[in-house]
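Check out one such.
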Amino acid sequence: VAQHPVSVLLTGETGTGKEVIAYLIHELSPYKEGLFVKINCAAIPEHLLESELFGYEKGAFTDASATKAGKIELAHKGTLFLDEIAEMSPEIQVKLLRVLQTREFERLGSNKTIKVDFRLIAATNRNIEQAIETKQFREDLFYRVNEFSIRLPALRERVDDIEELFHYFVDKCCHEMHLPVPVIDPLVYNILKEYNWAGNIRELENVVKRAIIIMEGKKRIECNDFLFLTAQ
């Protein structure tokens, strides 16, 4: 899908790596020469999200002391990644829908129309079809952002990947902490594969960091370094 100019919707639980996949799609696409512009729709208050997306002219509102380009404008010829898109208010959903339909918009406080060309990737950990039923998400916007969908499975659904991911995070963590890479007791993988991983890959990385700190000074990661995990 990366090679084709269609919108992509990534779904899956928190911590499954949706932003990683979004960036990979960007890097493999014709839009890779442009910017990968990301915004978390759940992390920004509604009254600020609009100005973050569309930008504003100087004097558009009280604190607008200078003109600022929004994320949509910055993503021109690149990729716009809207994380947690299901948290976007209905009012902003309408404005985003217009941009996706016409590929043009106006900054806040301006009548000048700006044309844009970008690849949209959206992500959500919510059941978006259910949000449509409860009128929290527009059905017409859903069809615009869901031209191609990819579901990222939970880590407990892909236990065969745990060993490789564990090795990757051990190497990464040891490099960041300036520690030698330890030998790993093969029995450790049995513990990891039996764990539920509610936080998915993000939780696995945190578990690796904690284990590396616990075993510091030793040359081998053993099952005893994961007692904190089996006690949960």
